[in-house]
Specification:
The protein is α+β, with helices and mostly antiparallel strands. The protein has helices at 15-23, 47-60, 76-86, 100-105, 127-130, 155-160, 169-182, 198-207, 227-243, 257-262, 318-328, 331-339, 354-358, 371-376, 379-389, 394-409, and strands spanning 32-38, 65-71, 92-96, 134-135, 138-139, 141-147, 149-154, 213-216, 219-222, 268-272, 287-290, 303-304, 306-311, 343-344, 362-363. The strands form five sheets. It has a six-stranded mixed sheet.
Length: 411
C-alpha cells in the first residue's frame, strides 16, 4: 500500500504542520491526492465514471494528480487502520454505510459540515445513506451510491393465483393468504421472512412513523415502545403470521431466503435486490421484483439501504478531497452510475425502476458509537422472537427492548 503523497513543495520538517492544517481544511500545495475506492469501480462500465471525475477535478486543479487505489471489502478496514496508525491516510476513502459509525465516533474523519452546501444534491440525498454519514449533529460522510431492498417473487405462482403486484400492505397480505391456499406443499411460505429479521421488521416500524431510538439532550432514548413504533411492530406480527412459514426464532441466514426460494418453497421473499441472482436456474425465468408496499397505498415501505459513503480521513488534504468528492458525486457522475444499474445518492435523479422506487423511503440505525453492541447483543432479534412466539405482548417486548437499547447506547 502506497502512502498518501504530500506536495513536493512541503518541507519534511513541516510535515506535522501540514497534517494539522489539512485536517482543519488547509490548502497547502499538493502534487497529488490518493483516493481509495472499492474494486467495483474497476469494472469496465464503471471505470470511465471515475476517469471523468478525475478529469473534472484536474480541470480545476491543474498539475494535481489523482492516485486511485482500489481496495477489497474483505481487508480495506484493516489497511485503513494501519494508515491511521502510521499517519499515511488516503485523502478520500469509500466506506460501507454500516462501517461509518465506528470511525466517526473514533474521530477518524474530518468534519464536512461547513462544506455540505457546496456538495451536489446535498439537500436531496437518500436519507438512508445521509444518516450513515452524520454523527453528533455533524457531517462526516457524503453519500455515494445505494442498493435497496425489494420483494422478489414467483411470477408463475402469482399469475396462477390471479394476483396482481400489490400496492399496499393490505393487498400484499391478501395475496399471501391466497398463495398459501393454492400451494399446500409442506414448508411453503407465501412470503419468506425469518422471524427475527430485524431489517424487515424495522421497516414496518418506520413505515408507521416510529423509530428505534433518538437523542434527547445528549442522551439516547429507546423509542420502540412509542405508540407509532408499537403499531409498526403489531403490523409486522400480523403480516408475518399471515404470510411467512419461516421460523419465528431464527435469523435470515439460517437458511438464506434465496436458498429456500431455489427449492421451490417460496412465493416471494423480502431482501436485497441482488437476491434475484440466486433463485435457481429452474425459477430464473419466472422471477421478478416489486417494491415492498407501505400500509399507505401507493407508497413504498421504508427500507434499509445498503451502500457506500465517501469520507475524508484525519490528516488528509481536506480542501482537495472535498473538491474531488464534488466532482465524483456531480449530477453527471450520478447519472452515469444510475446508467450502469446503481442507485444514485439523490432522490432528484431516481427513476421508475423497482430498485429506485424502493429507495425513495429509507431508514438507518442510530449513529451511536455503541450501536454495534445492540446488534451483537441481539436485542432486536430477542424482541421479535418474544413478540412472534407470544412470550410477551408487543408493548411489553418493545418496552424491554427500548430500555435495553437506551442502556447500551448510553453505556
Amino acid at each position: 500500500m502506497r502512502a498518501r503523497i504530500i506536495g513536493a513543495a512541503v518541507l519534511v520538517g513541516a510535515a506535522l504542520a501540514v497534517v494539522a492544517s489539512t485536517a482543519s481544511g488547509g490548502t497547502q500545495a499538493a502534487s497529488s491526492i490518493t483516493v481509495w475506492l472499492q474494486t467495483d469501480a474497476q469494472a469496465t462500465n464503471w471505470e470511465p465514471i471515475v476517469k471523468a471525475a478525475n478529469a473534472a477535478f484536474q480541470k480545476d486543479h491543474p498539475g494535481v494528480a489523482v492516485n486511485v487505489q482500489y481496495q477489497t471489502w474483505g481487508n480495506h478496514l484493516q489497511k485503513f487502520d494501519a494508515t491511521l496508525a502510521g499517519g499515511s491516510t488516503p485523502d478520500v476513502i469509500e466506506m460501507g454505510n454500516t462501517e461509518m459509525t465506528k470511525y466517526m465516533a473514533a474521530g477518524a474523519f474530518q468534519d464536512l459540515t461547513s462544506e455540505k452546501g457546496s456538495i451536489p444534491n446535498s439537500g436531496t440525498w437518500l436519507e438512508g445513506l445521509a444518516a450513515s454519514g452524520r454523527y453528533g449533529g455533524k457531517l462526516y460522510g457524503v453519500p455515494y451510491y445505494a442498493g435497496s431492498r425489494v420483494v422478489t417473487y414467483r411470477t408463475d405462482l402469482f399469475k396462477k393465483a390471479g394476483i396482481k403486484v400489490p400496492t399496499s400492505l393490505a393487498q400484499f397480505t391478501a395475496a399471501a393468504k391466497k398463495l398459501g391456499t393454492q400451494n399446500k406443499q409442506k414448508g411453503f411460505s407465501p412470503v419468506y421472512i425469518a422471524g427475527t429479521d430485524w431489517y424487515v421488521a424495522m421497516g414496518f416500524v418506520y413505515d408507521f412513523g416510529g423509530k428505534i431510538a433518538t437523542q434527547v439532550s445528549g442522551k439516547w432514548k429507546g423509542t420502540l415502545a412509542s405508540p407509532r413504533a408499537v403499531a409498526g411492530l403489531t403490523a409486522y406480527k400480523n403480516f408475518f403470521n399471515a404470510a411467512s412459514k419461516a421460523s419465528k426464532t431464527t435469523d435470515e441466514s439460517h437458511p438464506n431466503p434465496y436458498t429456500v426460494y431455489a427449492q421451490g418453497l417460496v412465493g416471494s421473499m423480502l431482501g436485497p435486490a441482488w437476491f434475484s441472482c440466486c433463485v435457481g436456474d429452474e425459477y430464473k425465468n419466472a422471477t421478478a421484483q416489486f417494491v415492498m408496499p407501505s400500509h399507505t397505498k401507493g407508497s413504498p415501505m421504508p427500507g434499509f439501504l445498503g451502500g457506500s459513503d465517501l469520507a475524508v480521513p484525519i490528516g488528509a488534504n481536506k480542501a482537495l478531497a472535498v473538491d474531488w468528492i464534488k466532482a465524483y458525486t456531480s449530477n453527471s457522475s450520478m447519472t452515469s452510475l444510475r446508467g450502469i444499474g446503481n442507485i444514485p445518492n439523490t432522490t432528484s435523479l431516481l427513476g421508475n425502476s423497482v430498485n429506485e422506487r424502493a429507495a425513495k423511503r429509507s431508514w438507518f440505525v442510530p449513529t451511536a458509537k455503541n450501536w454495534v453492541n445492540v446488534e451483537n447483543g441481539n436485542i432486536l432479534r430477542n424482541m421479535l422472537s418474544q413478540i412472534l412466539t407470544g412470550r410477551l405482548t408487543v408493548k411489553q417486548a418493545a418496552q424491554s427492548a427500548s430500555d435495553n437499547i437506551a442502556s447500551v447506547l448510553n453505556g
